[in-house]
Design goal:
The chain contains 16 helices and 19 strands. The chain has helices at 4-14, 23-28, 50-63, 115-123, 141-147, 154-157, 192-196, 230-242, 255-265, 285-301, 313-324, 326-331, 349-362, 389-408, 427-431, 433-446; strands spanning 19-20, 44-45, 66-70, 86-90, 97-101, 106-109, 127-128, 164-170, 176-180, 205-212, 214-215, 219-227, 249-254, 275-283, 306-309, 336-339, 342-343, 366-372, 377-384. The chain is an alpha+beta fold.
């Protein structure tokens, strides 16, 4: 329990309404979208300004009190799950869109702004913010920046880091720093903007961000390519890139995912296909029409059994909405849904999907796979039950094998979900011990007392690595 003096001081900073330590409120902040991880915080404090964030952090540094920053809690790596003896700092009150600067093509906002609200605001002015995580209807910009969120448009447009130009952030000491600016070129000192983007709340609390905007694409075209052969689908991905066609979206769904999504969304997805590619292109109308025709030709040449081109933008949007519903659809099928995140070079997508299936069979698990085929980012998703301890042990062993296989194929343990609690034991597999020590040194420079989101990124002990023969 938090000492009464600290409770009083925190209440004085934010006001009685924005300090909570009642059990009902604490439970709501004890978990995020990652299954299997949960812990009650000591209290929840919700600041309404950068000055209040600074005052809270100065107090926590003085008292050596752990702090976990939190947005909407949609992250999938346990990054906002409290650790023992910590408070949660909710950033939902800092939710203003401060400026859309059409002269510089930037937007400046606070971290609690919901991602889709930024999309809607800039698109109403004919502008475009490309990063589009699957959770964008509820995730916040601060969480997107902290996790360096990806999304469906990553192949053509990149990820959140590619659009963050400037940040305001509060250090654990309570000092406020500003990085970057409305600039496309700035090499003054270390790039703290890019360092803080993707730092998962372990270095500073982000309180404001300026992001780059683009002109809104004139139009979109959408195709659904259906394959009875997994290798043909994978070949098509590589062939499209080789033909110098870079779609805005190039998504993969295996048969298991197809069936579940169709049962949920009822959009006419083919249930007799081994895999589908959902492809969308955007840009000037003439260029989109040309690319859609070329994409369809490549898909057929590589063995697509069927290629359907959306007749209207509404039909295309319906297909994209169905893809975005994949996690929700899968979550309906079992008490516990574990959505993972392994990335390989796109030329190895078929190999990775086959390895996931092999591992699922070996461990007697139901794993469906979908993801961003264009950038090799796959989401093997296990439908399980956390109450079945034997099965959960097999799930953990299976994902260890899957991560090992991804690394052996030149991939990584996470393409967009982050490390957090869930992947901390695997980080050394990817970066090696010397790099871990460098990262710990950076952490110590920002947060010498280790109060900010502790337990995330770095594991107390690296998991034992299994050997997978490729």
């Amino acid at each position: 329990m938090l000492a009464s003096e600290l409770r009083t001081e925190l209440r004085q900073i934010v006001g009685d309404e924005w300090f909570r330590d009642e059990p009902d409120h604490l439970v709501a902040y004890s978990y995020d979208a990652t299954p299997l991880y949960q812990h009650l915080p000591l209290a929840v404090v919700i600041p309404g300004s950068t000055e209040e964030v600074s005052a809270i952090l100065r107090l926590c540094t003085r008292e050596n009190l752990k702090v976990v920053p939190r947005g909407s809690g949609t992250n999938l790596s346990g990054g906002t799950v409290p650790v023992p003896e910590a408070i949660v700092m909710g950033l939902g009150r800092l939710n203003r869109l401060l400026e859309i600067d059409e002269g510089n093509l930037t937007a400046t906002c606070q971290p609690g702004l919901v991602t889709s609200q930024l999309h809607q605001a800039v698109e109403a002015r004919g502008l475009f913010y490309p990063p589009d995580p699957g959770s964008m209807a509820i995730s916040t910009l601060g969480g997107n920046v902290a996790e360096n969120a990806g999304g469906l448009r990553g192949l053509k447009y990149g990820v959140t880091r590619d659009y963050v130009l400037a940040l305001e952030a509060v250090l654990p000491s309570g000092e406020t720093i500003r990085t970057g600016g409305k600039l496309y070129k700035d090499v003054a000192g270390y790039d703290l903007t890019r360092l803080l983007t993707g730092s998962e709340g372990t270095l500073a609390v982000i309180t404001e961000m300026t992001v780059k905007l683009l002109p809104k694409p004139e139009t979109q075209g959408t195709l659904l390519a259906c394959f009875q052969d997994l290798d043909a689908a994978a070949r098509t991905v590589s062939r499209l890139i080789a033909e110098r066609i870079i779609p805005a979206t190039l998504e993969f769904l295996d048969n298991g995912t197809l069936r579940v999504v169709e049962d949920f969304a009822h959009v006419g997805l083919p249930l007799d296909m081994e895999a589908v590619l959902l492809i969308q292109q955007d840009g000037p109308a003439a260029a989109v029409a040309r690319d859609v025709q070329r994409i369809a030709e490549v898909c057929r040449a590589e063995g697509a059994a069927r290629v359907d081109v959306a007749a209207t933008p509404e039909e295309g949007q319906k297909l994209m909405t169905a893809r975005r519903s994949a996690l929700s659809a899968l979550a309906r099928r079992s008490p516990t849904t574990i959505l993972e995140d392994a990335t390989v070079p796109r030329s190895r997508v078929a190999d990775m999907v086959r390895e996931i299936r092999r591992v699922a069979d070996e461990y007697h698990l139901n794993i469906c796979t979908f993801g961003h085929a264009g950038d090799g980012n796959l989401h093997p998703t296990c439908l399980t039950d956390a109450r079945n301890h034997d099965e959960i042990e097999r799930v953990e062993a299976a994902f260890a094998r899957i991560f090992d296989a991804a690394l052996k194929m030149g991939g990584t343990i996470t393409g967009e979900h982050g490390v957090g609690l869930a992947k901390a034991g695997y980080l050394e597999w990817k970066v090696g011990r010397p790099a871990i020590e460098v990262m710990k040194g950076i952490k110590a420079a920002f947060d010498p007392q280790g109060i900010l989101n502790p337990g995330k990124m770095f594991a107390g002990e690296t998991r034992r690595r299994v050997v997978v023969q490729q």
